[in-house]
From TrEMBL:
It holds the Pfam family Aldedh. Keywords: Oxidoreductase. PANTHER family: ALDEHYDE DEHYDROGENASE-RELATED. Residues 12-455 form the Aldehyde dehydrogenase domain. This is 2-hydroxymuconic semialdehyde dehydrogenase. GO terms for molecular function: oxidoreductase activity, acting on the aldehyde or oxo group of donors, NAD or NADP as acceptor.
Length: 459
């Protein structure tokens, strides 16, 4: 399979003809050869986008709503296939991607279309920001793009999307949907490539606004490039998500659900947990239950399987988590279960580490891998005390009786708290607290990021 860029409504290879290999996370075999874009491809996409912008910015709200509904319909008609392709390339379960990426994307497009037809403030005029750059991570890539694409399109902008090199299939499935929906050529352009392409998009003076989702180091590099030009900037990422199990929780029956936010995605997604706090009163029994559960765990070898232990996205990720575990041991952490896995694919046994000091590096930094830090605490109030020490604060999960859960949820420094559940197909875009987000976080099409809002006086 060859995966190209999508520019001007067509699939075209990189100008250099260079490619890179995309490997199957489940087997380690080559899935596709992918166009390796560079500055020439960005310039080409920009030139085409500028031409498209001259007419698209004057399109009516009704016409834009029609485009959004048409794109939603195109995705809906091929939802199962799109979910499978993304799951295969991302090393995730098909059912998870279908529910939390594809179906969410469809609803976002539909909801944005409806919002375009609602009455607007007559004292305000909304003009598109211009060319919007979208840069996203690989996990549930379609969703991360559509979250930003929908309001950008609704506001009358044209866009350049840099798709993660770990999910190049997203260019193909989204590009085909754009063609099917008859979105005007050049309005949405999708580029393959590495971090170099992201930096070019972030720094090019023709791009008025940049919205990005990814790990903290990626967002920092984008900010350093974009801020000197006073671009509109919208950054989301940085996850060190805590989970907590409170007293009187039926953790034995809930164990698969409690561990699912760690296992599905193997700690690599921004929604995954990497720390788990339990009370000392039941910690020994809980740890024994975890040990037994992991002992019987089987890896997910096919996206359509039912197992929750998924592979890592690349061989580099396998090597990276191995180094972090070694570093954790040097910080006095003790490996409770886990370690390297045998066989094909980028699998690593889900690893639990105990006794790691709450102010240690691994308790603060993003891990991006199958390493779960379990910390027993004596009192409930210690949960929020130690959970809040990290400088990233994306989301969290709390398990327990309603009256106890709400108290802890209110005290956690995270932007989103799942209560006795996780990833239920919500359409909410999460912008975390602290270092987990930065810039203009307005996601509405007629807000100050995707639109230039002009207020009228004296009318």
């Amino acid at each position: 399979m060859e995966l190209s860029n999508f520019i001007g409504g067509e699939f075209i290879p990189a100008e250099s003809k260079n490619t890179f290999s995309k490997f199957n996370p489940f087997t380690g075999e080559v899935l596709a050869q992918v166009s390796s874009s560079d500055a020439m491809d960005v310039i080409k996409a920009l030139q085409i986008a500028k031409k498209a912008a001259t007419s698209f910015k004057d399109s009516s709200l009704e016409q834009r709503a029609t485009y959004l509904r048409s794109l939603a319909q195109a995705l809906q008609e091929d939802a199962d296939h799109i979910a499978y392709e993304e799951a295969l390339h991302q090393g995730l379960p098909h059912a998870f991607v279908l529910k939390n990426s594809v179906e969410v994307s469809i609803r976002i497009l539909q909801e944005t279309a409806e919002s375009l037809l609602q009455s607007q403030d007559p004292q305000k005029l909304f003009q598109p920001s211009g060319i919007v750059g979208i840069i996203t991570a690989w996990s549930c890539s379609l969703r991360l793009i559509v979250e930003r694409l929908a309001p950008a399109l609704a506001a009358g902008n044209v866009v350049l999307v840099k798709v993660s090199e770990h999910s190049p299939i997203t260019v193909k499935v989204l590009g085909e949907a754009l063609q099917k929906a008859q979105i005007p050529a050049g309005v949405i352009n999708l580029l393959q490539g590495n971090a170099e392409v992201a930096q070019i998009i972030a720094g090019h003076p023709s791009i008025r606004a940049v919205t990005a989702a990814g790990k903290t180091s990626t967002l920092e590099a984008i900010a350093k490039t974009a801020l000197p030009q006073f671009k509109k900037l919208q950054l989301s990422g940085g996850a060190k998500n805590p989970s907590a199990i409170l007293a009187d929780t039926d953790y034995k029956n809930l164990l698969p659900e409690i561990l699912r936010p760690f296992l599905v995605g193997q700690g690599q997604m921004c929604w995954n947990i990497s720390r788990l706090f339990v009370l000392e009163s039941f910690a020994p029994d809980f740890l024994e239950a975890v040990k037994n559960y992991f002992a019987d765990l089987k890896p997910l070898k096919d996206p359509r399987g039912n197992e929750s232990w998924t592979p890592l996205i690349s061989q580099n990720s396998v090597s990276g988590i191995d180094e972090k575990i070694k570093f954790g041991v040097s910080e006095h952490g003790k490996i409770f279960v886990g370690g390297k896995a045998e066989g094909a694919g980028y699998f690593y046994k889900p690893t639990v580490m105990l006794d790691l000091p709450n102010c240690s590096v691994l308790q603060q930094d993003e891990l991006h891998g199958p390493l779960l830090l379990i910390t027993p605490v004596k009192y409930q109030h210690e949960i929020q005390k130690w959970a809040n020490t990290s400088y990233v604060a994306h989301s969290s999960v709390v398990w327990g009786p309603a009256e106890k859960v709400m108290k802890v949820a209110a005290a956690l420094d995270t932007a989103h708290v799942w209560v006795n559940s996780w990833m239920n197909g919500e359409t909410t875009t999460i912008f975390g607290h602290k270092h987990s987000s930065f810039g203009n976080l307005d996601m509405s099409w007629n807000g100050s990021f995707y639109s230039d809002v002009k207020k009228l006086a004296g009318t």
